[in-house]
Each structure stands twice: as C-alpha cells, then as structure tokens.
Amino acid sequence: MSRSVLVTGGNRGIGLAIARAFADAGDKVAITYRSGEPPAGFLAVKCDITDPEQVEQAYKEIEAEHGPVEILVANAGVTKDQLLMRMSEEDFTSVIDTNLTGTFRVVKRANRGMLRAKKGRVVLISSVVGLLGSPGQANYAASKAALVGFARSLARELGSRNITFNVVAPGFVDTDMTKALTDEQRAGILAGVPLGRYAQPEEIAATVRFLASDDASYITGAVIPVDGGLGMGH
C-alpha cells in the first residue's frame, strides 16, 4: 500500500535520496524545503521548521493531499561551525533550534495522526559527530547527540501505540557539502574511515527505508550508524 511519507529537508543531499527511495517504492512523498527551487516529483512544501506556525501549515497541506503522515523522516538540519571561544550565542542557539527543537516540532505534529491510527514510523537523522564529537562542532554535535535521548524517550512513551522511533547516524557522505572540501581535507577524513570511502546518499536512504518497512517492525529506540566504521564503539 502507498503510505504518506514526510521527509523534512528533502530537497537535496541525504534528504533527497531518502525521498526518492520512498517514491520509487510507490509511497506518497512530501518534502519540506526552506529556500531555492524544490525538486520535481514530490509534494514540496516550503517550511522553516524553526517557526511553529509554518510547521502547522505544512502539515495541513500534506494531510489535505496525502492524508495523515504515517512515516516521518526528520532530516532538516544546519551547521554553524566555530571553535568554542569564538562561538556566539546565536551560533549555538540557532543550530539547536533547527536540529533539535525543530525536530521536536515536526515529530509532535506528526504524532497527532499516528496516535489516532495507532501506528507510525519516525526516523531521526543524527550524525556520527553526535556520538564521536568533532572540534569546532560543539553546537552541531550537541544537537545531534540529543536526538538519541529524544528518540529513546519517545520509543518508551509511545511503543504501546505501535509507533517506533529510531535514529540513523550517517558518517561522511558524498554530497555537495563534502565535495567542497579540499583534497587534503578529504584525505584526512578518509584516513579515519575503515572502509576508506565516503557513503553514498542512497546508502543512508536504504537504511531509513528498512526502518520504515515491515521487516523492522520490532526495532525501536535503535541508533544505527552508517559511517563506514568511523564511529564504531559508540
């Protein structure tokens, strides 16, 4: 059956690969985006997840077209990297507001329909940095680490309603962001990855699709690294 899927930040990179994976499987896919032109083939809704009113409006549009969201992939996120002594209050709070509080907003709103249906799948996109740490990314790492506690708390709170909450923690992925790095920076990163290469966005998407499938019906509160071994042991 075609399910109603929402991927936040689904207009590029990992989010777009996830959206395509669900669409290719025949699901009805909505994506949120904050700026630029969204890709074709999806119900694209402009939404800044730091604004509760925009989140509410986005859900109303999606529900009108596709019905209540059955699978939510909370992928939207930002970085504002800076060493701690140079990190401003705004650098810290804006990253937390998007990556953590924004996730809270979209999950809470999706939960309304999931509770009524007595089923649902929520997948939060974290990062190996949230488990491993990274110099200059204290704000980003804190926001991504917090998603683990958030998901596990909700897994306990709502497991009896047949709603699962899981976390995918990607490592370094071959996207426009990593393509912008210098050869020296790329080599330094790959030196710490046992598999010796970047992930493809489709590899992250495959893991997310698995967690939303019937095969993963007894998995909740899990943190699945897709990082080539970079963060193993965490």
TrEMBL record:
It catalyses: a (3R)-hydroxyacyl-[ACP] + NADP(+) = a 3-oxoacyl-[ACP] + NADPH + H(+). Keywords: Fatty acid biosynthesis, Fatty acid metabolism, Lipid biosynthesis, Lipid metabolism, NADP, Oxidoreductase. Gene3D superfamilies: NAD(P)-binding Rossmann-like Domain. The active site is at Y140 (proton acceptor). Its EC number is 1.1.1.100. Pathway: Lipid metabolism; fatty acid biosynthesis. One of its GO terms (molecular function) is 3-oxoacyl-[acyl-carrier-protein] reductase (NADPH) activity. It comes from the Bacteria. Belongs to the short-chain dehydrogenases/reductases (SDR) family. This is 3-oxoacyl-[acyl-carrier-protein] reductase. It comes from Streptomyces davaonensis (strain DSM 101723 / JCM 4913 / KCC S-0913 / 768).
